[in-house]
Amino acid sequence: MQTQLLNITPGVLERAGALIRSGELVAFPTETVYGLGADALNADAVKRIFEAKGRPGDNPLIVHISAIDQLAPLISAGPSPMAQALMDAYWPGPMTLIFPKSGLVPMAVTAGLDTVAIRYPAHPAARALIDAAQRPIAAPSANRSGRPSPTTAAHVMEDMDGRIPMILDGGPCDVGLESTVIDMTGAEPRILRPGGITPEMIEAVCGAARVDEAVMRPLKEGERPRSPGMKSRHYAPKGSLTIVQGDARAVIDRIRALYDAAEGSPIILALDGHIPAYGNRRTLSLGPDAAGMAHALFDALRRADDLGADVLFSEAVPADGVGLAVMNRLGRAAAFHIIEV
Ligand code: TXA
Ligand code: MG
Q1: Ligand 2 centre and the CA of 140: distance in Å?
Q2: How far is CA 315 from CA 137, 251, 293, 338, 339, in A?
Q3: Using only C-alpha atoms, what is the Rg of the chain?
Q4: 82: nearest Cα among 104, 94, 97, 67
Q5: In the prediction, which pLDDT does 246 show?
Q6: Taking the domains of the chain in order of start, what are their residue ranges?
């Protein structure tokens, strides 16, 4: 299959919408990461997503909408007052809410679960594609399963060339990490995957926000996570990654020593302000701070692969605000191999 990489114009959106309606896949930009979209109401189309990604069939997809009135037909009970308050505050935006599903949503989307994850993205091209398709779009991140999520159209091309007919190029994504996933089926919001909408922001609206225990640790043997996506090996670079965490001076000293003692081809993932301290050792930029790191992390992991790095050492940021999402992704990429200094 020939994969077209196209700039977004009204004519291209029309063609992309028609592809979705006919059961094909289209990759598109969102404010978080690129998505791999299919008609959410067509089980056969949705199955193609799992094939193209090599995604395990037990990992459910997020359904994307382009207007609030598209929500009601997809869920079986109206949003709770708390869910409504979150929607008012942060939709459209990088937040996914989990509700009891309606009969309209195929089991192929929810991987057999009786709940469905819904997101109303802020990116104009994502919304225009849903409008053009005239139906909700099921979309995981547009990477091959196990690879870091794509934050540019070029990343999507690396993973999906020859597997899908069309990629819409909307430039680099704003946030750079996937949306915050919040289970709204219980008494209080439970964050299953941290993202750009932080626990602090959720607490400000709901008075409470629980972060699922599985967010900052590896899964135990045989554990069934509330969010099936937490199970699979994710975001992982090809080389082995170690995080060094603590006081900046001590972190730099330790990473320099580890790098100098490493066998094979090592590389350092560092905050911009620290890069000079590594001298002529090989480094990749993580940006200036936690928000910059959200933006830079997945690209840095892909570049480390491109450079053939087989030993990676990364700096860390404090796990609060958007730093929680950054450290969740970095922690999982490192299989939670973390050195405290
Ligand atoms: O920012 C994003 O959310 C991006 C863009 C494209 O919107 N999408 C994305 O999708 O990251 P994906 O498939 O890579 O991650 C979806 C996550 C997975 O961890 C999945 O297990 C979880 O959401 N999920 C989906 N439906 C669920 C459900 N009913 N219950 C619990 N977790 C669910
Ligand atoms: Mg993903």
Answers
A1: 5
A2: 37, 7, 10, 10, 10
A3: 20
A4: 97
A5: 97
A6: 4-216, 240-340
* Amino acid residing at 171: G
* C-alpha 165 – ligand 2 centre gap (Å): 20
Residue 326 CA, ligand 1 centroid: distance in Å: 16
Compute how many other C-beta atoms are within 10 angstroms of the C-beta atom of residue 50: 18
Q: Is the dihedral of CA 308, 309, 310, 314 positive or negative?
A: negative
304-335 per-position pLDDT tens digit: 999 999 999 999 999 999 999 999 999 999 99
Backbone angles phi, psi at 16, to 5 degrees: -65, -45
Per DSSP, helices labelled H in the chain are 10-21, 43-53, 81-90, 107-110, 124-133, 153-160, 199-206, 248-261, 290-306, 323-333
Class of domain 4-216: alpha beta
Closest atom of ligand 1 to CA, residue 59:
21
Question: Token pair 């869910």 is at which residue?
Answer: 83
How many residues appear in the chain?
Answer: 341
The CB of 116 under 6 Å from ligand 1? The reply is yes
Amino acid symbol at 139: A
The ligand 1 atom at the shortest distance from the C-alpha of residue 181 is: 23
Nearest residue CA, atom 33 of ligand 1?
Answer: 227
User: Comparing C-alpha atoms, which of 138, 165, 164, 169 is closest to residue 151?
Assistant: 169
Q: Which residues contact 155 (CB under 8 A, 6 or more apart)?
A: 34, 143, 148, 298, 299, 302
Tracing tokens 């964050």 back to the chain, one arrives at 191
* CA of 229 relative to ligand 1 center, distance in Å: 7
pTM strictly above 0.90: yes
The predicted pLDDT at position 226 comes to 80
Identify the CATH number of the domain defined by range 240-340. Answer: 3.40.50.11030
> Which residues, in sequence order, are bridge partners of residue 235?
none
What is the Cα–Cα distance from 70 to 64, expressed in whole angstroms? Answer: 9
